[in-house]
Design goal:
The protein has a domain of 66 residues. It has three helices and no strands.
Length: 98
């Protein structure tokens, strides 16, 4: 089975959409790589995960607090996967960071 290939930039829809997106960012004077909210979200999610991990591994809390931290670590991990990795996949982070 041959891999599926799409023609890039040949359809008028793609060209019109790309032009409108570029015009939007230029008119609003925004960068296409993201802003402070993007970086804050990434730092917050990674910090929550690291806090939970360090607390669970090095301080061994009680059962109920440990369970709560495990759930919070799972939510933080999902947040990293769904948000930070998704934003990175779309090229929202500058190349210097990645």
């Amino acid at each position: 089975m041959l891999p599926l290939k799409f023609a890039r930039g040949q359809s008028s829809f793609f060209n019109d959409l790309k032009e409108q997106v570029n015009t939007y960012f230029e008119s609003k004077n925004k960068r296409q790589t993201g802003n402070l909210y993007l970086y804050s979200k990434a730092v917050f999610l990674i910090s929550v995960f690291l806090f939970c991990y360090v607390t669970l591994v090095f301080f061994t809390p009680g059962v109920w607090l440990g369970l709560l931290l495990c759930i919070l670590a799972g939510v933080a991990t999902a947040g990293i996967g769904f948000n930070v990795m998704h934003d990175g996949g779309h090229g929202s982070f500058p190349e210097k960071i990645c």
